[in-house]
Design a protein that fits this description.
single chain; about 375 residues; alpha/beta; Helix Hairpins; 3 domains; about 60% helix
């Protein structure tokens, strides 16, 4: 409950079963209605009521998101404890297997010595070719087993590298890291409702070029921040650690429970909004997600997606309208154009862009 006894679920109009995404979506809708900036010309009593309502909405939203964050941390702790227990059990099994193999090896060696002592020099010379063949067979089987294990590990966790727009089919060019480079964890909610975590890096302060962890032209998404941190800490498993102060970066990511709102992107909320008319779409939501789609398509050379974002394309014109809609003078014309826009065509192009990105996602646990 809030300090004044009001139920935050009632204030936001959600249920206790609502997800964080549903709560965030409802909050944004309410902000569009009650934000004081939209009522500057209203009477003083109306502005006071709007301000009071907005304060209650903000308090309720913070209360619920904090509660979900605490639940997420508790769930991560439980998952970590489960993984640690499973890791201990795995190490115990491996130790027992090694001890059993050592016992079997010593037993075979003892039996072989006893056989050699009984057969003498003649039998020893006769058995040498057979023993050599057996040794070669064992080495061959051992190499095959190691190869299968290596291929299995790579299928589960491919060797990630920084993918950016200067990449070539022949390989990666030297990544232009500098002291101005920045890197942040981001969260992407797909249309299926699944949320994945990855990294986005900018090489300069102007943020003209972005890089992402990728493998075989696929963006790598982790199921949780914990799994991403564990993978980043294994520098032998990827090619991401060539940036300055990598250790401090991993430590910083380790102290982050979840990316903040500025680094969260909701393809699922985009898909939900496309069911309504363009005038009901939230400009900031479409602008930020369009920028991310552009960066990923550039980094992974996704030509089908890049064509949808070229200058003069429906998505480009729609983006220009969204960036102008809140301006004092240009916003009036932008709102008129949005009202006359054919929502079906814009929705189709947006769905193609989102699907083009999701088709190049690879999940890692």
């Amino acid at each position: 409950m809030l300090p004044d006894g009001q139920d935050p679920y009632t204030i936001l109009g959600v249920t206790r079963e609502s997800s964080v995404g549903e709560i965030r979506e409802r909050y944004r809708v309410l902000v569009q209605i009650w934000h004081p900036d939209r009522h500057q010309s209203s009477p003083a009593k109306v502005r006071e009521e709007v301000t009071r309502q907005m304060q209650q909405i903000n308090a309720a939203y913070k209360h619920l998101t904090d509660a979900h964050e605490r639940e997420a941390r508790a769930r991560q702790d439980r998952e970590r404890q489960t993984r640690e227990r499973q890791e201990r059990e795995r190490r115990d099994r491996e130790r027992q297997d090694r001890e059993r193999q050592d016992r079997e090896r010593r037993s075979r060696e003892r039996q072989e010595r006893e056989r050699q002592d009984g057969e003498g020099d003649t039998g020893d010379r006769r058995d040498r070719p057979r023993e050599s063949r057996e040794r070669r067979d064992r080495e061959h089987y051992s190499r095959e087993r190691l190869q299968r294990e290596r291929e299995t590990r790579e299928r589960e966790h491919p060797r990630a590298q920084w993918t950016y727009s200067m990449s070539t089919d022949a390989g990666q060019l030297d990544t232009p890291w500098s002291s101005a480079s920045t890197i942040h964890p981001i969260a992407i909610s797909l249309r299926s409702g699944e949320t994945g975590f990855t990294l986005r890096a900018y090489f300069d302060e102007q943020r003209t070029e972005a890089a992402f962890p990728g493998a075989q032209r696929h963006l790598l998404l982790f199921r949780s921040m914990a799994s991403m941190r564990a993978y980043l800490a294994r520098t032998e498993a990827h090619e991401l650690a060539d940036i300055p102060d990598w250790e401090s970066l991993v430590e910083q990511i380790g102290s982050t429970a979840e990316p903040d709102d500025d680094h969260c992107y909701e393809f699922d909320l985009i898909a939900h909004s496309l069911r309504f008319a363009p005038t009901q779409w939230v400009p900031e939501l479409f602008i930020t997600n369009r920028d991310l789609i552009r960066e990923i398509s550039e980094a992974f050379n996704l030509d089908d997606v890049r064509k949808l974002l070229t200058v003069g394309s429906p998505l480009d014109r729609l983006d220009d309208l969204f960036r102008s809609v809140d301006r004092p003078i240009a916003g009036w014309g932008a709102r008129r154009q949005l009202a006359s826009l054919q929502g079906g065509q814009a929705s189709t192009v947006w769905r193609k862009a989102v699907r083009g990105i999701e088709d190049h996602v690879r999940w890692l646990r």
